[in-house]
Structures are given as structure tokens and as C-alpha cells.
């Protein structure tokens, strides 16, 4: 898996430099292939409610736009806001780790990282859009699309995407917290993003846990939605300067990649050693039970670690020994 991940990353970097126009198609192929496989795996692990999260909602819209509406300027702006707003900053804030040896971690990084890179390429690098627009003052290449005024920019990069986000949030609450509420109450092993984040925050007693309890323990879901809404508003607002500046947008792409690589390094150098030490400590603290022995002093085949020692004086007839080994 590690070897495959490194080779794939190298191939992607080569295509990014030699054929940037192929990256959107590669992204669509990636998501259409990986999403069903991940759903099957998550369904087995009882993690399938993660597929109601915003990242999958947004990625589905991205694929539809790229495959069926590639020349729709307004839909492009909405997708740009999603990709370089909540999805991109979630990669940084939630510390997604680029770990080539973990398929699950690798996919988590890519579904947050690739969309922004795809729309960066279409915005600044895509040769297909070079002849459509004149060179503007925001970068060295023709930029797509060109908007008439800032009001139009804020409408389609902030207001409309925020309405689309609110629609997703309402649907999420309806499905997960109303229609499937009893299912989640009956099975605590079924995982949702709120359950996962709240358990981690509670264990560490960090600022997110304290903030989510401002309205009381019974209203943590509501407070979680409010905090996520504030996060979305702030990150969508930041997409406007990214859209207007080629250099700033380029720096942001580097920041996202650097953050995921940095988190991957922390995982290898800090998280994994602590997990290995925890397993060793657990094994060292495990009680040592005496193993049943036969008359030769060797362990009796099939004997449990909880069996008492057998007497060395075995009885002459079969089935009359001091223990039953079945």
C-alpha cells in the first residue's frame, strides 16, 4: 500500500506539470471509483453515516458539475467556494494526515485536497479556457471565469454557496437526528461525525468540548451545528480573495499540501510510537496464568491458561485424568 501510494503521488505530480487539463478527469475517476468502495468498507464498520457529511455532498456536486456542466460559470463559482472554503480548511483544522501506508487516511486527504486543486487548475491553468477570456490583472495567465463586478462575486462565492450549505445542514439533521435517531440510540457502535468529534473532545476536554456545552449537555448537537456554521461562513468569505489573486491562491495550495504532509509526519513520529508503546504496556500487564501440564512436563494440548496444574500421577484408564481438556 505504501509503495502504491508513493507511485500514485509521483504520477499525479507528473501529470500536474505536464497535463494539468487531465487532473479534473482524473479526480472524477478517483471519486467515482473510491466512493462506492469506501461505502462498503464503512458499512461493515458501522461508519456509513459519515457519507451524510458535507464533504461527500460537496464532492458529488463537483463531479456532476465537471462531467455535465463544465461551462456553467455560476455553478463553477459555487463549487469553488465549497472546495476552497469548508473542505480546504477542514483539511487543516481537523489535521488530515497524508499517510501512504493507510488507504483510509489517504482517501480522507484526497477528497478534501483534490477538489481545490482541480478548481485552481480550471481557474488559472486550464488551456481550454485560455482563448475564452482576456488576460486580467490578477495573474500571469487568462483567468476563468471573469466577473463583471464584486457584487456578482460575493453573490456566487458566498451567498449562494451558504444557502446550499444551509440546505445540506437541514437535510443532515432531518435524516440523522430525526429519521434515524432511534437507530443511533439503539446501537452506540454506529458512528457519526458528531459522535466521533465529541468523544475525542470529551476525552481531551479541549476547547471544542467546552464550547459545545455552552448551551448545556442536552443542546450539544445544536451548538455543534452553530460552530460548524460559523466555521463555514468564515471559510467561504476567505474564498473571495483567493479567487481574485493568483499568487495568494497558489500559496494556499502549498499550505494545504504542507499541512497534510506535516500531519502525516506527526502520525509516523508521534502517534504510531505511542500506539506501539501502549500495546507493549498492555501485553506486559497481562496476567500470566499457569498452563496445564501432562506427565512429561509439556503443555497439555488443548488446555486453557486457566486450567489448574495436572497431577503427575496419571490414572491408568483413559478419561480419568485430573482435567478435561475439551
How does this model look, in words?
The chain starts with a helix and ends in a 42-residue tail after the last helix. 66% of the residues lie in helices and 0% in strands. Mean pLDDT is 80; it is low at 131-139 and 295-326. The protein is globular. By secondary structure, it is mainly alpha-helical.
Which characteristics define this entry?
326 residues; mainly alpha; disordered C terminus
Concise synopsis of the structure shown:
The chain contains 12 helices and no strands. With 326 residues, the protein is mainly α. Helix 4 (73-93) packs across helix 5, helix 4 (73-93) crosses helix 6 and helix 6 packs antiparallel against helix 10.
Name the assembly state.
single chain
Distance between the termini: 42 Å
Assess the beta-strand content as a share of residues.
under 5%
Rg of Cα set: 27 Å
The count of DSSP E runs of length 2 or more, i.e. the number of strands, is: 0
Average residue pLDDT: 80
Rough outline? globular
Largest β sheet strand count, sense and barrel closure: none
Order of helices and strands: HHHHHHHHHHHH
| Count of alpha/pi helices | 12
pLDDT < 50 stretches: 131-139, 295-326
| Helical content (DSSP H or I, runs of 4+) | 55-70%
Task: Provide the fold topology.
Elements lengths: L1 H17 L4 H23 L8 H15 L4 H21 L9 H23 L24 H30 L1 H6 L6 H12 L2 H6 L7 H18 L1 H6 L1 H39 L42
